[in-house]
Design brief:
By secondary structure, the chain is α/β, with parallel strands linked by helices. It has 10 helices and 11 strands. Strand 2 (about 35-40), helix 2 and strand 3 form a beta-alpha-beta unit. Helix 1 runs parallel beside helix 10, helix 6 packs parallel to helix 7 and helix 6 (about 140-155) packs across helix 10. The longest helix has 23 residues, at about 10-30. The model has no long low-confidence stretch (mean pLDDT about 95). Bound molecules: nicotinamide-adenine-dinucleotide (NAD). Nicotinamide-adenine-dinucleotide binds near residues 142, 165, 196 and 210.
Length: about 300
């Protein structure tokens, strides 16, 4: 038996098509073009790639894309002034400050300066609190994309035991909140969890968000379980040539695919869904700002 492969790339393309449809209607019927502003401080190569992809996909969906690139030595006051300016700008519906920020900048302060209704990453404490309280919020993109795929595959998640490995604010914790909201029974495991393998073996749904290449092997997986691999790890790939690298997940795909019922690959699983959900969140934010009904097919 091999697992069903959940094709995040195709799913993300489908979400982007839906986004595009909503944007077209918003422009034609309401003269409203959703806009996303991305702020990048410094020259981190991975962040530059992310920001370029975000800008490209934003424009491809017909939205306005605003890119603000600041030098690595930008001081806090300058960055906060830019965030405040974007908060006031009616053509900007979503603001994303690319993390990590250079060490001299206080990420928490910067993120919490973004107007919560424009916080399309869902990292502002107001959105964290609202999600926890089961209120309308902006939902962090990676967990949102993961839950969309889970719901699409399973339908109802009621009664499912879900184990999330990793307790970060950007993936693990919001993922647990979303699963709880979907009537699953989530457990958050982490670096201090005792008998981690046994905890994972009890799960109908495993979400791996650890940042450790191929840590979760097939023998940790309950036969038939659904595995969402959030990990993105760059590892040496000598088989591709000297000095070459490849991207692997937190799950050892070759062994897990033989046991799981369904699994997301890396690359091509959760990764593409993250940007697609950022675009979806921007449309949601623009709809809310204009008092229009929120597209129900862009959330969970
Ligand atoms: P993080 O470093 O903030 O958190 C990692 C978590 O894993 C921590 O809570 C820690 O307790 C736990 N952990 C560490 N070692 C462990 C161990 N041995 N056993 C059990 N738990 C352990 O990481 P993050 O930001 O949540 O990201 C996790 C992974 O997901 C990374 O590989 C990251 O690149 C990837 N990621 C992918 C996307 C995407 O778009 N697909 C988005 C965000 C993060």
């Amino acid at each position: 038996m091999t697992a069903h492969i959940i094709d995040g790339k195709a799913f993300a393309a489908n979400v982007r098509e839906r986004v595009k449809g909503h944007v077209t209607r918003m422009v034609e019927e309401h003269g409203l073009r959703p806009g996303l502003a991305v702020v990048l401080v410094g020259e981190d190569p991975a962040s530059q790639v992310y920001v370029r992809n975000k800008g490209k996909q934003t424009a491809e969906c017909g939205m306005a894309s605003f890119e603000h690139k600041l030098p690595a030595d930008t001081d806090e006051a300058t960055l906060l002034a830019l965030v405040n300016q974007l908060n006031e700008d009616a053509t900007v519906h979503g603001i994303l400050v690319q993390l990590p920020l250079p060490k001299h900048l206080n990420s928490d302060l910067v993120i919490n300066t973004i107007a919560p209704e424009k916080d399309v990453d869902g990292f502002h404490v107001v959105n964290v609190g609202r999600l926890g309280a089961g209120l309308k919020s902006m939902v962090p993109c990676t967990p949102l994309g993961s839950l969309m795929m889970l719901k699409d595959y399973h339908g109802d998640l009621s009664g499912k035991n879900a184990v999330i490995i990793g307790r970060s604010n950007i993936v693990g914790k919001p993922m647990a909140q979303l699963l709880l909201g979907a009537n699953a029974t989530p457990t958050i495991a982490h670096s201090r969890t005792a008998n981690l393998e046994d905890v994972v073996r009890a799960a109908d749904i495993v979400v791996a968000a650890v940042g450790r290449p191929e840590m979760v092997t097939g023998d940790w997986i309950k036969p038939g379980a659904t595995v969402i691999d959030v990990g993105i790890n760059r590892v040496p790939a000598p088989e591709k040539g000297e000095g070459k690298h490849k991207i692997v997940g937190d799950v050892h795909f070759e062994s897990a695919v033989k046991v799981a019922g369904a699994i997301t690959p890396v690359p091509g699983g959760v990764g593409p869904m993250t940007i697609a959900c950022l675009l979806a969140n921007t449309v949601t934010a623009a709809s809310r700002a204009a008092g229009l009904p929120e597209p129900s097919d862009l959330t969970v």
